[in-house]
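Entry for the shared binder. Reason: the reviewer on the internal report wants the predicted structure included alongside the sequence.
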Amino acid sequence: MKFLATVAEPVNRPDDRLVGVEVLTSRVLLHPTDPERSRGFYRDTLELAIYREFGTGPERGVVFFLGNGLLEVSGRGDQPPGPEIALWLQVRDLAATHKQLAGRGVRILREPQREPWGLDEMWIADPDGVRIVLVQIPEDHPIRSRPGI
């Protein structure tokens, strides 16, 4: 397994103050109520690629790739995250993703549909009820013509 390391020099203003918060990498942290069940969901059901694993025992951590972000499933929470928490994942083919996940028994909260803002979305839930929005951006959507997207 290869690990990536990023080192950057701070960006300084002439008066030696840092410019903003310099974020080099980021990840979402989830502390599931049943760590093994949640690791299995993200690893085996969604088949997310593993970036790294750490620790030992039932509450060991696994960090998964999420496109250009990371998801860390580690530790144990006393309660599931509240409804304010959701993951937004862009997929290439929402219809194929829907068929695949439905066949694996994933809890689908909302079937795929075109939203008023023009994105195709489907909502699923992880074992703790964390909402996961799966999004496909249609070819003719204006977001595709914006630089950097």
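Summary line for the report: Helices lie at 35-45, 94-103.
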